[in-house]
């Protein structure tokens, strides 16, 4: 009986590990795709990048207290 529980626990840990590894590989693929898109947009003539920089006062996320 103890061997059955040990086997089930060990199997569950391997399943969790493979699910985690799979999710990491999907995240890495997504980041790689975004990086490739950024590289292609920079090579395509848009060499000037202007970040969306707003001060706290301009942002609607942080309303000014009355």
Nearest-angstrom radius of gyration?
A: 24 Å
Uncertain residue segments = none
Distance between the termini: 67 Å
Structural class by SSE content:
mainly alpha
Summarize the structure.
This protein is an all-alpha fold and 66 residues long.
Keywords:
single chain; about 70 residues; mainly alpha; elongated; 1 helix; about 65% helix
Structural account:
The protein is mainly α and 66 residues long. Helices cover 64% and strands 0% of the residues. The relative contact order is 0.06. The mean pLDDT is 81.
Write the layout of secondary structure elements.
Blueprint: H1 2-43
